[in-house]
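In full, the data.
>
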Amino acid sequence: MTGRGGLAATLAAPLAAAVARLSGRVRKTPLLRSRLLEERFGFEIHLKLECLQETGSFKFRPALNAVLAATESGRPAGFVTSSSGNFGIAAAAAARIAGLPLDLVMMPSASGHKASVAERLGARIVRCADDYAAREARVRELAEEGDRRALHPHDGIETLAGDATVGLEIARQLPELGSVVVPASGAGLVGGIA
C-alpha cells in the first residue's frame, strides 16, 4: 500500500461492505459542539459521541464487522481475541449476536470490571502473562486448538473497515469538516478514519 490513497483504495470495497453489514446494527452517534473547548482553542469543535455506541465505545463497530464478515464465508467454531477491555467487551457482544463463543485473552493488569462485563456478555476469560507478546501467543494457540477465528483489535482489513465507518459518518454529518483529531493507541481508529 504505497502512494497517495493506498490505504483508502484498499479499504473502499471493505468499507462499502462494512457500511451494508452494520446498517441498522450500530448506532449513528451524534456530533455535538463543545462550547467549552471552542472557548479555549478559538475555533469550532465537534465531539463524536461514540461513548453512546453499543458497549460504550467505537470498538463495537470493528468487532461486529469482523464477526459478521467471518460468518459470511462459513461458520467458524467461535472466536478468540485479546484486549485490555473495550475491544473484548465489543467482541463478546458481537460473538453473542452471531451465536458463537468467544475466548478473551487478558493480562492480569487488565481491568477486572471490564473482564466481568465481557464475561456477562458470554466471553470466556483466559488469563496470560502480563506481557503483550504472551497475550498474542495465547490468542494464536487458542485459535489453532479450537478452530476459532482470531480477531485482532486494531489490525485487519475488517476491523479497519469497521473503524472507517466512524470517519464516513463524521464526513456525512459535517461535510464542511476541516480536520479530525483522533486518539491513537493501537491506531486502528486512526487507520480507519484516515
About this structure: The beta strands are 31-33, 46-48, 79-82, 102-106, 123-127, 149-151. Helices lie at 6-22, 35-41, 60-72, 86-98, 112-120, 132-146, 157-173, 188-193.
